[in-house]
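ok so i was messing around last nite and threw this chain in just to see what happens. nothing serious, just curious
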Amino acid sequence: MSTTSYNCTNDAQRAEGLAHAQKAIAAKQVIVMPTDTVYGIAADAFSAQAVATLLAAKGRGRSMPPPVLIPRIGTMEGLAVDISDDARKLAEKYWPGPLTLIFHSQPTLTWDLGETHGTVALRVPDDQLALDLLTITGPLAVSSANRSGQPAAQSASEARSQLAESVEVYLEGGMRPLEGSDPVPSTIVDATGLRLRVVREGAISLEEIKRMIPSVLGADVEPEIWEPVNLTKSDEPAISLEKSDEAEEAPETSEDTETPETSEETEVLEASEEVTEAAESSETVTEEAPEVTEDSAAK
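result:
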């Protein structure tokens, strides 16, 4: 693979770089781009081959799927379902910006980002070069532009020293964040439960989010779940439970009261916990996450 770098602080090279990056994305190749947090390695979110190439370039497996960067809030509607009013308020407040929101993915989408268990992490980056690229390519799977376990790249040249020829196009836009500043990942909020839950604090603090959404949960609190209802004994609606790390274990459910729905709910919750753990450990360039990316892109 041939590799080309473009100095996007120059108008002519910026235009050439964006055009080449668009062609590379369409050809299922990967590119490196700046975001508002750190540099990210990006691929077509709807191409399983491209996403696999991205993960291979980083030396990362499918258990740590990349977040997806989008050009505007409106794109969220086509990629996610069950978007709560609280999640929408955060998006309207902090997008573009260092906030990654985890939603249930639209079930009709034919994409493969890895082991997401039916969820997707979305973010709108506050970087004009990134937004211009996203406008012409559509949603991009983006992780921090570095080998897994290595420091997140703050320039395209730093990214190239780690990723080398595995990337088709490098878009150099200067230091991210500004020179002299430490890279800070995006804050990741899980919006798949009954209440929002901050699973990683980054550029936006839990306290700041609480001022806007008082009901938001911290990472040290388990997500709220619906208590299964035994329909043979009660017609009352399910109630929500909030459990802390120190909460006592729930009493065991006897076999004669467990319903098929209970087993299904357990599987869904276990899957959700795996996604949350992956999000907490991911690098978001942005990181979409945490290493960072944006990874939550990145994170």
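not much to say yet. Helices lie at 11-26, 48-58, 76-79, 85-94, 128-137, 156-163, 206-212, 260-281.
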